[in-house]
Amino acid sequence: MFNRDIETLPLNKMRELQLERFKWAVRHAYENNAFYHKKYDAAGFHPDQLKSLDDVKRIPFLTKQEMRDNYPFGLFAVPMEKVVRVHASSGTTGNATVVGYTKHDVEVFAEVVARCLAAYGATEKDIIQVAYGYGLFTGGLGLHYGTEKLGAMAVPISGGNTERQLMLIKDFGSTMIACTPSYALNIADYIEKKRPDYDLRKTKLRAGIFGAEPWSENMRKEIEQRLGIEAYDIYGLSEVIGPGVSGECVEKSGLHVHEDHFYVEIIDPETGEVLPEGEKGEIVYTTLTKEAFPGIRYRSRDITRLYREPCKCGRTLVKMEKVTGRSDDMLIIRGVNVFPSQIEAVLMEVEGTEPHYQIIVDRKGALDDIEVKVEVNEKLFSDEIKVLEGLSKRIADRFRSVLGISAKITLVEPMTIPRSEGKAGRVIDRRKI
Ligand code: DLL
Question: Is the CB of 138 under 6 A from ligand 1?
Fold first, then answer.
C-alpha cells in the first residue's frame, strides 16, 4: 500500500479526520470565495453550524451549472499566484469547467493516483505507458504525476498513434498501460487487423489502468482476453481532482474511495435526499483538503452505490460500485429509463457482436425511436443474410425482455463505427438537436 496508515484507518478514526477536515474545507470556501459566501448566506448556513458529520445535510449542494456559471476562475479560493496548474472538464455542452490546483493540491492529486497504482500491484519497477491525453484533460498528467510519485517510470506518450504505442510497449518494456477502455479495444482491433504478427503476450505488458468512461464487467473480460492483461478500473472527475478519486485493488470488487480527501454521500437524484449506505443513487463529493478549487457537496450526476465490507486487500476505505453511467446520460425511451451501459451489457452477451456500437435516439411524431448500430465479427458478416437476420432478432428480443424497450437493430461491418482515442461518444440523441 502506498499509504498504509490512511488506507487501513478504522472507520471511527476516519470519521474524526473527515469531520476535522470538513470543518476546514467549508470555512475555507466560505471565507475565501465570494460565490460560496453569498450562497451560504442566502441559504442561512454558516460554517459554525457544522458540528458533526450529520450537519453536512444542512449545506446546500453545488451543481454543475453553478460551476459553469463561474467560468473561468470564479470558484477559486486562493489568490491566483498560489495556483500552479489548471485543467478543464471535458464538458460537451455550455462552458467548460476550469479547475485549479495549488502546489499542495498537485501533491494530493499525485498521491491518490499513486495509491491506485500500488493497489493494482505496481511498484517502482513498473514502466507505465500513459496513453491518456495530456493537456487540459486530467487523465494524462494525472497518471503521469501519480506514476512518478510511486517511483515507477512514466512513458508520456499521450493518446493515439497506435503503431507507436505498440512499438514502445515492445522497445521500452512497458508493464502497464493507462488509457480509456475504448482505446484499449481499439488497440486490440488494430493488432488483429493490421499487425497480426504482433503478439502482446510476448511483451512485458501485464495490466491496464482504465477509466474516464463507464465500462462493464463484460468489457473487462473482453479486454483481458484480447490483450492478455489484467484490467483495472480507475475513476475520477476533474471537478473533484481528476483520476484517483477511487480505484480498484487486485480483488476487482469495487473501487476504494480516498475518503480522507473526498467525502462521499449518495443522494436520490430526484429529491436530493441523502440515502443510507448501500443504496444506489447520485454520488456527491466534498473535497476535504483542496485549496484552489474547493468543491463542497458537489452533485456529480454519476450513479453508483457505496458499501463497506472487509476487503481481502486489507483496505478499510469505503468502496464504490463501478459507475454505470450518469443521471444525465440516462435515456428515456417511451417512458422507459435506460442507461447506455445497460445496452452495452446486453450487446456483449450476444455471440458474434463486437463491443463497438452507437445508439441513435430520435423522435418520430410523439414517439421516441431508438436504433442500435452494432458491429458484427468478420466471419458472421460474410455469412448468409439469414444468419444476420437471426442475430438482429436475438438482440432485439434481448432488449425487449431485459430492458423493456423495442429497438431497431442495425448490424454493420467490422471497423465501420468511428473509433476513439479518448472517451468514446456512443450516443447520438437527435431529440436534443
Ligand atoms: O475522466 C478523469 C479520469 C481520467 C478518470 C482518467 C479516470 C481516468 P472528466 O473528464 O472530468 O475526468 O470526466 C469525469 O467521467 O464524472 C464519470 O462520469 C466518467 N468517469 C470517469 N472515470 C470513470 C470510470 C476524467 N472509471 C466523468 N467509470 C465522471 C465510469 C467514469 N465513468
Answer: yes
